[in-house]
Amino acid sequence: MNIGQAAAASGVSSKMIRYYESIGLIPKTVRTESGYRVYSDQDVHTLRFIRRSRDLGFSVEQIADLVSLWQDRERASKDVKAIALEHVGVLERKIRELQEMASTLKHLARNCHGDARPHCPIIEELASDDPAPAPAKPDAKFGALGKVAAR
């Protein structure tokens, strides 16, 4: 199949397929005499594997390792698990960072009158040379929105 058909079948754009080939994530494909790429069903299967890996947020380097492990029938599952758990740690750190950013912005927005006056704590904080203050942690008894936590 040609690159357009492979893209449609795998859910990976033609541009990304060319990129993955250029960095060696997928092998160089067979070409016709006129220079068109020809993809096999196995190539499409690999592209789907890559797409699902990208959907889970794995880096290109991690995907290369996963593809290699996937193709190695003698692999140890612990190697795959280690990559997955390392990625979980990265995702959990990002989640905490995003939650902290959201909490800080909510705090600043609560302290902004949001009226016609020019005074705005949000702008003042963004313009400040000091690091942003950490928002107060919610009381264990109360949730993030100030409601009593379910028990």
Automatic annotation (TrEMBL):
Cellular location(s): Cytoplasm
Gene Ontology CC terms, in alphabetical order: cytoplasm
GO biological process: positive regulation of DNA-templated transcription
Keywords: Cytoplasm, DNA-binding, Transcription, Transcription regulation
Gene Ontology molecular-function annotations: copper ion binding; DNA binding; DNA-binding transcription factor activity
Main location: cytoplasm
Coiled-coil blocks: none
Domain HTH merR-type: 1-69
Region (Disordered), start-end ranges: 127-151
Entry-linked CDD domains: HTH_CueR (cd01108)
InterPro entries with a match to the protein in the record: CueR, DNA-bd_dom_put_sf, MerR-type_HTH_dom, MerR_fam, Tscrpt_reg_MerR_DNA-bd
Superkingdom in the source lineage: Bacteria
The protein, known as: Cu(I)-responsive transcriptional regulator
Source species taxonomy: Bacteria, Pseudomonadati, Pseudomonadota, Alphaproteobacteria, Hyphomicrobiales
